[in-house]
Amino acid sequence: MTDNNFFKDKKVLVTGAGKGIGRATVRRLCQLGAHVVAVSRTQSDLDSLRDEFSGSVTSVCVDLADWTATRERLSEAAKGVHCLVNNAGVALLEPFMDVTEEHFDRSFGVNVKSVLNVSQIVAADMIARKEGGSIVNISSQASQRALAEHATYCSTKGALDMLSKVMALELGKHKIRVNCVNPTVVMTAMGRLGWSDPDKAGPMLSRIPIGRFAEEQDVVEAILFLLSDSAAMVHACILPVDGGFLAT
Questions:
Q1: Quaternary structure (predicted)?
Q2: Catalytic-labelled residue, pool 10, 11, 157, 200
Q3: Is 153 annotated in the active site?
Q4: Disulfide: which of 15, 68, 149, 191 matches 88 by Cβ 3.0-4.6 Å?
């Protein structure tokens, strides 16, 4: 059971905070008394977050694919962070034979390289403070199953899973836990738009024993559990939130 009291007065950095899972995570953390550093490349999303959670959110607007700009913008904001949620990601879906260099580089730049970059920034401060911390990376069931027209996306998420394991191996001695959450299709606003067609959703749903896609809160609760001391001995975990998809 997640210790919701754990988050009171904690500082948590969330990337991809403007929409979907990231925004839902920010909302729940603020409700639990955390101060959130919300990172997004869309200023209007950050403005609405600040309006919704006045006093509980510090916003940072940056394109995480830009390594140098990310370091510049987060150098101060990341200080004193207790927990990190690497949620930002892109899904540029296309048949294997149509994958372009531009889309390949953009996908790896956001889905993998930015996780390395942001985690280095945050972990360096955690190590200097000698207080430990927790990092949760948002991966996907696509890291472990081949999906048509997902060549680049599946590749980035497979890389993210392995990056997370190496992070766990090297950061564990500093009392920094690192885990992954690997959802199935999630019914964010974008998810509902993309998966409302029964002809498209049917084949995927038929592979999910529980018979539905994930809701945002299903993923948020898994994130909070792994961040909190309730998961104090959970480290280097790849946690599916997939209704059993990976069992089929």
A1: Homotetramer.
A2: 157
A3: yes
A4: 15
